[in-house]
Amino acid sequence: MPLSPGEFYAHAMRSADEEGRLPLSRMTGWEIFPFEQDGLRVVPLAPPELPEPARAGEDAANCRACARERAAIWSDEHWRLTSPGPGGAPLILMLESSAHYDLPGLPDDRARELGLLMARIAAAIESLPHIARAHVSRWGDGGAHLHVFFFARPAGFSQLRGTCLAIWDDLLPASPQEQNARDAAAVAEALAASYGGQPAPA
Q1: What are the start-end ranges of the H helices in 158-197?
Q2: Which terminal Cβ of the chain has fewer Cβ within 10 Å, N or C?
């Protein structure tokens, strides 16, 4: 029998201290964790909030992703790939469906395209000579419109590997705009060659 939200909370609180703080996670002991353990504290776990607050775009008529004018670096009839702008990682890209879908409601033909696109985008990112890996993330708690992030990990920086890359992206200074634009354009060209669709005009 699965735990109810209240039971899940009570179960977690049995491990908490008198302030309701859980112990530091195993992740804080990883050599790739970006913070020192000394002085690091876990925020208290809040009790469940049901029903959960609505995500942005639950109603397609009010979806910001559908209305957004951000220029795509690559697109086809069903998908668009955008570059949200320089972050701490050398390149961050976001793949969105053109139509208003979330991942669980994606039609089978779009789901097949998504799998192939993810593989081709990752390959294009990893073909950049200064990139070691393409990390792929889909969280979906902030917006109901399907969006998948691609984070490029720079070559030689194994400290940035794994799930902490998204945190490092927030900590590192923004990558140079010109290099970011060149990398995004190279990925768009490679994707058009391997998958189809159109890169944005230069």
Answers
A1: 165-171, 177-194
A2: N
Residue type, 105: G
| Alpha helices (H) along 42-151 | 64-67, 108-126
Q: What angle do CA 17, 21, 27 make, to 5 degrees?
A: 115
Task: Kindly report the pTM of this predicted structure.
Answer: 0.91
pLDDT in tens, 6-51: 999 999 999 999 998 999 988 899 999 999 999 999 999 999 999 9
Tens of pLDDT, residue by residue over 139-161, are 989 899 999 999 999 999 999 99
DSSP class of residue 160?
G
Q: How many CA atoms lie within 13 A of 185 on its CB side?
A: 9
What gap in Å lies between CA 119 and CA 39, rounded to an integer?
A: 40
What order do you get walking across the sheet with 72-75 strand by strand? 131-137, 147-154, 92-97, 79-82, 72-75, 198-199
Distance between CA atoms of 54 and 52, rounded to whole angstroms? 6
